[in-house]
Amino acid sequence: MAGMAVLGIVMTLGLVVTSSVPAQAVTRMHISKIQYNSPGTDDGSNRSLNAEWVQLHNRSGSRINLSGWTLRDNCGCGHVYTFHNYTIRAHGYVKIHTGRGTNTQTDRYWGRRAYVWNNDGDRATLRNRAGTVIDRCSYSGGDTSVSC
Q1: Among 84, 94, 95, 115, whose Cα sits 20 to 30 Å from the Cα of 104?
Q2: What is the torsion angle, in degrees rounded to the nearest 10, for the CA atoms of residue 38, residue 43, residue 46 and residue 50?
Q3: What is the pLDDT of residue 13?
């Protein structure tokens, strides 16, 4: 009897895991903040470029593999960051900096030598590897950052 109860729990848990994790990954990733105007003068230095970033938040209790996911601005001019071999932790945050640097669990670097996020307004779009829009965040300038 105890064996059947355990089997029933395992089967139920198996159904929950297989049916909810993909949907959870789609709805639980969130663009939480965009720092679109780096502090100080926009002098084009790597330090200034890296002070421009987008922060993503995994609001779920599960790790999410972001490999192949993209983050882009609204210009349609090829400003696309693609995640390679990266999994965000449960409840984790990651910043995608515009400039160059060494990737860590919490900070990724686009490697660009020019700014991406327009100070007077833009839109960030996060897509999964299938191209489905997961989240968007727009702003119209007037400050240095926006919480999404």
Answers
A1: 115
A2: 10
A3: 35
